[in-house]
Amino acid sequence: MSTITHQQQKSYQKLINILSIAIPVAVAVLLGIRQRIDLGLWTKTLPHINGVINSITSIALIIGLIAIKQKNIGLHRIIMLIAFILGSVFLVSYVLYHISNASTPFGGEGWVRSVYFFLLISHIVLSIVVVRFVLLAVYYALSNQIDRHKKIVKWAYPIWLYVSVTGVIVYLMISPYYS
User: Fold this and answer.
1) Total domain count for the chain?
2) Which of 24, 64, 77, 139 is close enough to 128 for a disulfide, judged by CB 3.0 to 4.6 Å?
3) Are 120 and 114 in contact (CB under 8 A)?
4) Which pairs count as long-range contacts for 47-51, CB under 8 Å and 24+ apart, including other chains?
5) Which is nearest to 166 in space by CA: 136, 130, 133?
6) Helix H or strand E segment including 173
7) How far apart are alpha carbons 55 and 83 in whole angstroms?
8) Residue pair 166/112 in contact by the 8 Å Cβ criterion
9) Does residue 28 form part of some domain?
């Protein structure tokens, strides 16, 4: 994006506000539907694919940070867009799995159960929060509002990295219980 008008900026902000609410609400509604949709056995592989996607996203986020610290803006931009695309693919894959398969109960006991649920709950809550931050960070970067981009990524980046890494940890903890 080049220079944007005030009206365009208001339109983009409105879209980000709508998406920041609509995405978590849509996911919650889809996950709340008790009737499962038969999409086929291939959906059983989605948690494993999601684990890989979260792992690659975590690595991309770290590489993106290193790139910007080294002032390699071109690499930073490419890597962060890859992370954003991976996050979008993850979201679609996550919803497809959960609308077609029953939730897998965690079978761990004792202290590990408490750790699992702490990580899971903090992961879910922060994954809702991070949507707005990431959308704003991408928008500010693409619209060349670098000062605003820098301000928002101070919040967006650590939350996004935490969500991505805890996604991998939660997956590794529950993966033995997938049927």
Assistant:
1) 1
2) 24
3) no
4) 47/97, 47/104, 47/171, 47/174, 47/175, 47/178, 48/175, 49/93, 50/90, 50/93, 50/94, 50/97, 50/167, 50/171, 51/167, 51/168, 51/171, 51/172, 51/175
5) 130
6) helix 146-174
7) 10
8) no
9) no
Asked if residue 66 is part of any domain, the answer here is: yes
| The two structure tokens encoding residue 52 | 């890989």
Q: Residue 7: inside a domain, yes or no?
A: no
In a domain, 1, yes or no: no
Residue with tokens 């709508």: 18
Residue ranges making up the domain that contains 72: 42-177
Single pTM value for the model: 0.89
Question: pLDDT of 54-103, one tens digit each?
Answer: 999 999 999 999 999 999 999 999 999 999 999 999 999 999 998 899 88
Alpha helices, DSSP H only, in 6-145?
Answer: 6-32, 46-69, 73-100, 111-142
Amino acid at 15: L
